[in-house]
């Protein structure tokens, strides 16, 4: 079986800044990969290249067997396969929670309103937020908003979910409610790529943990080995910094 | 509701020392002359009232409401009888009196449409479709020539319907243009950006009167003779392009206030570009700039009065020509006051509507 995501020799340059330098990464079907690293290490850029919110400058990305290049039809196909959750939720503030989940199905898939709303209700129930369906995002807490954002992405029935620091903008007491939803999703067998500093989540859910620094992948390992016996000095230094608190 | 009737034991009584002392109403004399600033303001206000008394006298007490003949209006006092006698000319211009009901229905239709637009259930595409249908109906009613209605050439149109139609149509047609110009100016395509910037800066750099002259007088000279576009249509085109340039800049401000994450989220969800613009970007951009949009709308309503310079018979021109009737002694003040009142009602209505929209937006943004 071909991998869900195959990335080879990926390069990305912003002016003078080399954000990604020859990154290779493969993610199999139903695999959960957690990417961590200091800020500016290129982890967000990498995940944003997978659904082409950033265009890459070199290398190849194949998602679900579809090669990403200049062909816009391929881009549409890849975006149908992938759902994305952002650090700042990016819900549509002028739409209710229900509309946030239903409207994208109508606009991008041509779904009928009744079907779209039914599906939206289903996923809102799955992230345990049914009773807020009629509210506007500005009336919800950060944790609730992020759960709605997850439901909105799931409504498009993607085969791969990309999470770009989903809990970094949350107050500490709201982090667990979002992580719980992500754990449920992982247990249901979703292919997930998660950029996060939540090492507890990585330990519990990840099949592999990827450590990035300065636009390169430094180390990739299953979580037990990653946390107990990191091979690279840079990984060890990062882990000692990030685990000091917990 | 039983718990409300039962007095809570800890309820503070009026004599409770924890409460601040009850605010006593300040005596009037202190309110008016308590300090230097209030005293000065009181004196100024009193002076203003005294100075306005003659005007009130003129407008109400000494006014002539009904006169047997125009000449009876001569001594002092406002001649409201003139406005009553000329209201048909001011409101409908040279429109044939036998067909005047059509112009009246057009005014009623515009008012009804504006009221219908207040309903929160009518939004977006459906509202625009209904407005489009209503505008076509208005133009058919005014122009005739079909459905057994005798044709009335646009040179005979006049008064309030022309003012309202010019305002509504110029703003309505300018809006989509403004959206394209604003998106073009912010977009990544260099050609679109250059075209947008050129149009916006060129039109904003010209006075509206100049644009109207070009449209009404210069354009027919430049175009081949069989390319005649109706003068009212050319005037409307000039107003539209003028409004579009200003609206585009207002909208650009609204677009700049938008978080880039909105566009990204829509992209990640696979929503096509134009649907993103229509459903995600524009509604938010417009919500961001309701006050300056209102401002532009009000300015454009009043700008329609400038068409009198190129000989289009709007409400102001009609009032002016009514005032030149030699049978009535110098009634231009009354005529202009009457027109000013109608403009005020329209513009104030727009303000109230925008305030109503803004409270809606605010309640959705913060609990």
From TrEMBL, chain A:
SMART domains according to UniProt: AAA
Residues in ABC transporter domain copies: 5-239
Top-level taxon of the source organism: Bacteria
Keywords: ATP-binding, Nucleotide-binding, Transport
Gene Ontology molecular function terms on file: ABC-type amino acid transporter activity; ATP binding; ATP hydrolysis activity
UniProt xrefs under InterPro entries: AAA+_ATPase, ABC_ATPase_HisP-typ, ABC_transporter-like_ATP-bd, ABC_transporter-like_CS, MetN_ABC_transporter-like, P-loop_NTPase
Family: Belongs to the ABC transporter superfamily.
Protein name: Amino acid ABC transporter ATP-binding protein
Organism per entry: Mesobaculum littorinae
Automatic annotation (TrEMBL), chain B:
UniProt cross-references to CDD domains, sorted A to Z: TM_PBP2
Principal subcellular localisation of the protein: membrane
Family indicated by similarity: Belongs to the binding-protein-dependent transport system permease family. HisMQ subfamily.
Species the sequence originates in: Mesobaculum littorinae
GO CC, any one term: ATP-binding cassette (ABC) transporter complex
Protein keywords: Cell membrane, Membrane, Transmembrane, Transmembrane helix, Transport
Xref: Pfam families: BPD_transp_1
Membrane topology recorded in Swiss-Prot or TrEMBL: Multi-pass membrane protein
Extent of Pro residues compositional bias: 9-20
Protein name (Swiss-Prot/TrEMBL): ABC transporter permease subunit
Domain of life, source organism: Bacteria
Stored InterPro entries: AA_ABC_transptr_permease_3TM, ArtM/GltK/GlnP/TcyL/YhdX-like, MetI-like, MetI-like_sf
The organism's taxonomic lineage, starting at the top: Bacteria, Pseudomonadati, Pseudomonadota, Alphaproteobacteria, Rhodobacterales
Residue span(s) of domain ABC transmembrane type-1: 160-354
A Gene Ontology molecular function term of the record: transmembrane transporter activity
Region (Disordered): 1-23
Transmembrane segment boundaries: 31-56, 101-118, 130-150, 162-184, 205-223, 335-355
Compartments it resides in: Cell inner membrane; Cell membrane
GO biological process, alphabetically ordered: amino acid transport
């Amino acid at each position: 079986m071909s991998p869900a995501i195959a990335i080879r020799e990926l390069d990305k340059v912003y002016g003078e800044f080399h954000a990604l330098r020859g990154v290779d990464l493969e993610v199999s079907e139903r695999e959960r990969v957690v990417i961590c690293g200091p800020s500016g290490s290129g982890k967000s850029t990498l995940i944003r290249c997978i659904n082409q919110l950033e265009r890459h400058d070199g290398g190849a990305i194949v998602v679900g067997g579809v090669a990403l290049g200049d062909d816009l039809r391929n881009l549409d196909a890849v975006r149908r396969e992938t759902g994305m959750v952002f650090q700042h939720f990016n819900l549509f503030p002028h739409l209710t929670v229900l509309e946030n989940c239903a409207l994208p199905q109508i606009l991008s898939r041509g779904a009928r309103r009744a079907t779209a709303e039914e599906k939206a209700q289903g996923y809102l129930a799955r992230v345990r937020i049914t009773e807020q369906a009629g509210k506007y995002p500005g009336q919800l807490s950060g944790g609730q908003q992020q759960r709605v954002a997850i439901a909105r992405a799931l409504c498009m029935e993607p085969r791969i979910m990309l999470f770009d620091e989903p809990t970094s903008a949350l107050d500490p007491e709201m982090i667990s409610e979002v992580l719980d939803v992500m754990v449920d999703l992982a247990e249901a067998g979703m292919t997930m790529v998660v950029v996060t500093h939540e090492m507890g989540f990585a330990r519990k859910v990840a099949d592999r943990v990827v450590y990035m620094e300065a636009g390169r992948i430094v180390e990739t390992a299953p979580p037990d080995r990653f946390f107990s016996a990191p091979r690279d000095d840079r990984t060890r230094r990062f882990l000692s910094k990030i685990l000091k608190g917990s | 509701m039983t718990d409300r009737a039962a007095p809570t034991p800890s309820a503070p009584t009026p004599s409770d020392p924890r409460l601040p002392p009850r605010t006593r109403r300040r005596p009037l004399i202190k309110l008016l002359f308590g300090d230097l600033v209030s005293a000065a303001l009181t004196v100024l206000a009193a002076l203003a009232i005294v100075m306005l008394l003659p005007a009130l006298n003129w407008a109400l007490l000494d006014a002539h409401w009904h006169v047997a003949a125009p000449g009876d209006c001569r001594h002092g006092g406002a001649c409201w009888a003139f406005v009553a006698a000329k209201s048909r000319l001011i409101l409908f211009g040279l429109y044939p009196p036998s067909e005047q009901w059509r112009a009246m229905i057009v005014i009623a239709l515009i008012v009804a449409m504006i009221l219908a637009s207040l309903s929160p259930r009518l939004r977006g595409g459906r509202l625009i479709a209904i407005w489009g249908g209503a505008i076509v109906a208005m133009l058919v009613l005014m122009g005739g020539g079909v459905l057994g209605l005798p044709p009335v050439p646009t040179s005979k149109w006049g008064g309030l319907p022309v003012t309202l139609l010019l305002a509504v149509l110029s703003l309505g047609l300018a809006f989509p243009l403004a959206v394209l110009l604003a998106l073009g100016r912010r977009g990544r395509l260099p050609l679109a950006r250059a075209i947008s910037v050129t149009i916006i800066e060129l039109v904003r750099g010209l006075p509206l009167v100049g644009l109207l002259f070009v449209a009404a007088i210069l354009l027919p000279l430049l175009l081949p003779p069989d390319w005649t576009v109706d003068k009212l249509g050319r005037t409307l085109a000039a107003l539209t392009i003028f409004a579009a340039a200003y609206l585009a800049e207002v909208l650009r401000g609204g677009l700049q206030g938008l978080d880039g994450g909105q566009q990204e989220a829509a992209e990640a969800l696979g929503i096509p570009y134009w649907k993103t613009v229509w459903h995600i970007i524009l509604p938010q951009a417009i919500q961001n700039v309701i006050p300056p949009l209102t401002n532009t709308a009000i300015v454009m309503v009043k700008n329609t009065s400038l068409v009198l310079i190129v000989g289009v018979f709007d409400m102001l021109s009609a009032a002016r020509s009514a005032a030149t009737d030699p049978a009535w002694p110098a009634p231009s003040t009354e005529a202009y006051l009457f027109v000013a009142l109608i403009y005020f009602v329209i513009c104030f209505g727009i303000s109230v509507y925008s305030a109503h929209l803004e409270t809606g937006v605010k309640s959705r943004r913060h609990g």
